[in-house]
Amino acid sequence: MNQEEQYEILLKQAELLIENETDQIANMANLSALLMMSLENINWAGFYLYKEDQLILGPFQGKPACIRIPLGSGVCGTAAATKRAQCVKDVHQFPGHIACDSASRSEIVVPILTADNRLIGVLDIDAPIPDRFEETDIPFFTKLAELIGRHSGK
C-alpha cells in the first residue's frame, strides 16, 4: 500500500471516529491518538487552539509541550498568522523555531479554519528525523484540519 492509500484509509478512520461527536476537545483528543498510533516516525501529534490572540496547547500525544505560542512565532504561530500550512524539513533552519521538544527535527503544521475562514487553531505533527514531511503531505493534513473545522461549533 502506498502512502496516498494509507492517508485515504486514515482520513476515513478519522471521519468515522468523529462523525457523531460534537465536542471539539474530544474529537481532537481522539484524532491526535489516531495520528500517533498510525503514522510512522513521528514523536508528537496534536493541536493548538486559537484563544486570546495566541495559540494555547490543546489535546495531543507526545512529550509535554509549550503551552502558549504567540501568533507569528515558530512554525505553529506562523501557520496560524498566515493561515497557510508550513512544511519544515529541518526545524533548526526555521527562523524563530520554538524547541518544545529538542528531539523534534521536522514538522508540519496546518491551520484549522471554519467555513467562513475564522482561525480555530492548528494541527501540529513533529518528527524526530529531518525530511519526514513533504509538500505532498500537506493535502492530507489539510483534509484532517478541514474535518475538524467542519465539526467545530456544531
From TrEMBL:
Keywords: Coiled coil. It comes from the Bacteria. Residues 4-31 form a coiled coil. GO terms for cellular component: cytosol. GO terms for molecular function: L-methionine-(R)-S-oxide reductase activity. It holds the Pfam family GAF_2. InterPro entries: FRMsr_CS, GAF, GAF-like_dom_sf, Phosphatase_reg/MetRdx. Residues 13-152 form the GAF domain. PANTHER family: FREE METHIONINE-R-SULFOXIDE REDUCTASE, GAF/PUTATIVE CYTOSKELETAL PROTEIN. Belongs to the free Met sulfoxide reductase family. This is GAF domain-containing protein.
